[in-house]
Input
Amino acid sequence: MNLLKNTGTLYIVPTPIGNLLDITYRAIEILQEVNLIACENIKHTNILLQHFNIKNILISFNKNNEIQKNNILVKELQNGKKIALVSNAGTPVINDPGYLLIKQCHLFNIKVIPLPGPCAAITALSASGISTNRFCYEGFLPSKKKTRCNLLHSLKKEERTMIFYETKYRIIETIKDIINEIGQNRHIVIAREITKKWEVIYGNKASLILPWIKEDKNRFNKGENVIIIDGYKELKNINISDKIINTFTILRKILSLKESVFITSKIHKISKNNLYQYVIKKIK
Ligand code: SAM
Output
């Protein structure tokens, strides 16, 4: 029920990010019931509507025309119209146009009703195996290398889990920059083509993500990606005595880094992870 007299309602309607079954019953109902649908790409949204046998009026609303369209849509809403906002995929406004329209709706006391639904960032995060208690969403990294590296550098000590969107064109360069600016040992998860046929979610330390991407050319030629980076972890104040370092150094001469850390940690009864991080920091 619309509690605000004489004004319409703007519905924020998420749509599938691949698998059409991910649309909600409520989204279908709203897309049927509203007076018009503001969409990023009419052709794209028409395919969705046809699939669900929905007939409605579509109006183009994208990053190139949103400023002009805001006033038109606000007028329609003030005249009591119900409008659904959709983007090409996922939750509108999340790296898609719309927040300025919503801001105007708030200013003019027009009701805004968000529907829950698909969003690549949150779907990827839920399957990342990385802590979700605190996270930040960074959207697309800058396309210019220097700006991208500066931003990544500024995030080196970010403790929250970080979520990025990345295109197939830049995925290799971006992972290289993450290795250089954040570190080769930071845990990263790549969520590709979520909900689609070739969906894959792969996690490993940054230096091993790069060969994984390169081993299959589809991974850098095709598809959509979300990158999730584990937050910065302060090295615990552990007591790494000379005795421990001696053991490690001797073992390291004949064993791999992983094996040396493992055996040293067993001999001295200390945390394997803490020792690993300490050793990596010293080596770097
Ligand atoms: N509004 C959308 C949302 O809610 O996720 C995001 C739109 S943004 C313009 C498009 C980017 O989202 C893609 O470049 C990719 O990084 C990410 N993305 C969208 N669909 C995806 C999918 N199925 N798998 C992985 N990433 C996806």
Notes: The chain has a mean pLDDT of 94.
